[in-house]
Amino acid sequence: MILAFSSHLGIFLMINILSLLFIAYGVRRIFFSKNFEDDIDKKVLAFFLVGIMLFALGIFADTLVLLGMNSYLGNYQSTLILKTLAPVFFTFGAISLQRHK
Amino acid sequence: MNEIWLNGIAVIIFIIGLFFYKLNLRKIHYGKVVLICLGLVLIPLSSFINSYLPYFIQLILFAGFSQFAHEYFRGGLFRRRKELHEIYTSKRKEHKYAKEFLYPHLKELEKRRYELIKETDKLSSLKDELKEQARQIKEERKELEDAKKEVKNVHFEVLSEKEDKE
Question: Is this structure's pTM higher than 0.80?
Fold first, then answer.
């Protein structure tokens, strides 16, 4: 992975850090606006926020992999699993949106 | 091999999520946020095409996510301004964060409100002036009509006197 991106490592690290910053900004806004919604919307948004946080964790693990700091969290498989687990929570959110119409 | 399985599962989950999202009949204000979250599945999926592509898609999608979250927040601010103002004016400790967060926006809104009040005052004063002018013009017109009538009367009198003499 590192060998493949060695020439553009800086760009990918920057993209990951920028993505994490975007997530932090968006999550902060949603987390605040969530308090003024109904109970159903609160539940739906909570699912989506959990999914986003899992994705952020996946990006963090990817950053660790890019930096060569392989560990239990920071390895290629864990990034894949985290990035696949996130849509599961998004789907739970979408289902709960449908259920309480 | 694991990659293919995981991405396949993610796509199936995404399709199920999209299906349930489309079935939704409730009016929600965070539809764009939900859609962009469901679209995040494109990131691991795009690694099949090119190993550089996921990073760029990731950046674009998260930029969109933050933008839509910001729009949702601003929309909520205007929708529930009354509630927010109540929180802002309350003295509870748990509302401290809300106060800090909302202060600039509420300040802007209050400023705009005072500007609008001033403008309405100006307009109402203009309206009064115009009403006064209209009243004056009506009076002048009435006077002119009266004068015209008097002239006509005098004219007819003179004519009748002439006829009598003849």
Answer: no
